[in-house]
Amino acid sequence: MLTVAAALEQLMATVLPLSLSEVPLEESLGLVLGEDVCSLGDIPPFDKSLMDGYAVRSTDVSSGIASLRVTENITAGRVPAKNVGAGEAAQIMTGAPLPVGADVVVKIEETSRDGDHVFIKTLPPPAGTNILLRGTIVRAGEHVLHAGLVLNGPRIGALAELGRAVVSTRRRPEVAILATGDELVPINESPGPAQIRNSNASMLAAQIESAGGIPVSIGIARDNRDELQRKIQQGLKCDVLVLSGGVSAGVLDLVPGTLAEMGVTEIFHKVEMKPGKPIWFGQRDKSRQIVDGNCRECFVFGLPGNPVSSLVCCELFVRTAIRRLMGVEPAIVPPILAKLEHDYSTRPDRPTYHPARLTWGAGGFAVRLVPWHGSSDLCGISAANGMAYLSGEARQYRVGDELETFGW
Ligand code: AMP
Ligand code: MG
């Protein structure tokens, strides 16, 4: 059976980033930068004052005490009209350009003003004090942001500073969600005998949206071929189709067979992991897309129906596919290393993702495994904020052992 790493490798080889398009900067939050961005000019673009005070010559204040004649007042946005000569000072505000001749700004708090003279009493300031020289932050032509970064407030701010009103990104993929099972009822209905609510669809929609995708609900398909086919057909119009349930070995686990009949080629089925072993992944065969007049490529996941299995598979595989389509670097979320807060012993098993509580403290991340009743226990893991990876061998873990984890 495939390991998680091998399955992720196959997924990365199958799913490629969507094509690039230009979007206005103000619509780019959460999208992924599709290009390396350089600065066209120096930042700051001129030598500027970092303080409100007086721009002076360092040689005039080398003793720390001086009385200088004030020649002008330079506020932010104004170009200095005069040079600062020996015995002179220009009053200057934060962000204003430094006048020629001055090489120090003395803070207003270290001065007192009397008419057109300023008296300075300070520690002798070296040249450059309270000044940000042109190009100190970025030089013209320097790389500032690279392709693959998710655009957030600070990065959007940096792009705005660089004058990028339009940026190159990839759209969010549409991800159809189809729950399967004769036992399922919508969450706003009361389950009859032997029925349960379709909790997976709501959970998957939330996780898909948090990964950057646009969830599209297709509802519930009963465990029969006709209904499955009809709803799968609808889902194949999206970039990704995520099914839950019907991929194991039960008599009504019809999902893999139905997908194959519909021209979805299996890439892998079953992965060496717990929970989530029966996961199915495939790609809609391209020739079939053209026959149907639907040219979008579609990647299809059949997740096992047990809620925690669905969650783990969604986090490991569906999230990676969404990030890959959007061009996030790296597409596979790197694990967070966290120190175990208690002893824990395991018996030989498949490699396991165990619900866990991650906290951040002085020593970095710490992790505590939370009690749970297996892959159908979604309520038990509401106390968790992630999963910890246990390797599968019988092992006595000790306090302080480092575990690989992922969080949500
Ligand atoms: P299956 O993978 O279809 O064999 O389902 C495995 C278990 O998950 C069964 O107990 C199902 O009732 C349950 N299950 C399947 N789909 C869902 C769903 N959408 N929401 C909640 N539980 C589900
Ligand atoms: Mg089922």
Helix content: 10-25%
Q: Which sheet architecture does the biggest sheet show?
A: 6 strands, mixed
Question: Could you state the oligomeric state of the chains shown?
Answer: single chain
CATH architectural name of the largest domain: 3-Layer(aba) Sandwich
Rounded mean pLDDT score? 96
| Order of adjacent strands in the largest pleated sheet | 8-5-7-6-10-9
Structural class: alpha+beta
Specify the number of helices. Answer: 7
- The CATH superfamily of the largest domain appears as MoaB/Mog-like domain
CATH class of the largest domain: Alpha Beta
Overview of the structural elements:
With 408 residues, this protein is of the alpha+beta class. The chain has four domains: 168 residues, 3-Layer(aba) Sandwich (Molybdenum Cofactor Biosythetic Enzyme, Chain A); 45 residues, Molybdopterin biosynthesis moea protein, domain 2, CATH 3.90.105; 85 residues, Molybdopterin biosynthesis moea protein, domain 3 (Molybdopterin biosynthesis moeA protein, domain 3), CATH 2.170.190.11; 72 residues, Beta-clip (Beta Barrel). Helices cover 19% and strands 32% of the residues. Strand 9 and strand 10 form a beta hairpin. Helix 1 runs parallel beside helix 7 and helix 3 runs parallel beside helix 7. The two termini are 27 Å apart. The site of adenosine monophosphate (AMP) has 19 residues, from helix 3.
Describe the secondary structure blueprint for this structure.
Blueprint: H1 4-14, E1 21-24, E2 32-33, E3 37-38, E4 48-49, E5 53-56, E6 65-74, E7 88-92, E8 104-107, E9 111-114, E10 117-121, E11 131-132, E12 143-145, H2 153-161, E13 166-170, E14 174-180, E15 184-185, E16 196-197, H3 199-210, E17 214-221, H4 225-235, E18 240-244, H5 255-261, E19 264-269, E20 280-284, H6 286-291, E21 299-303, H7 307-326, E22 336-340, E23 344-346, E24 352-361, E25 364-369, E26 386-390, E27 395-397, E28 402-407
Parallel strand pairs: 6-7, 14-17, 14-18, 15-16, 18-21, 22-25
Antiparallel strand pairs: 1-13, 2-13, 3-12, 4-11, 5-7, 5-8, 6-10, 9-10, 19-20, 20-21, 22-28, 23-27, 24-25, 24-26, 26-28
Helix pairs in contact: 1-7, 3-7
The protein binds adenosine monophosphate (AMP) and magnesium ion.
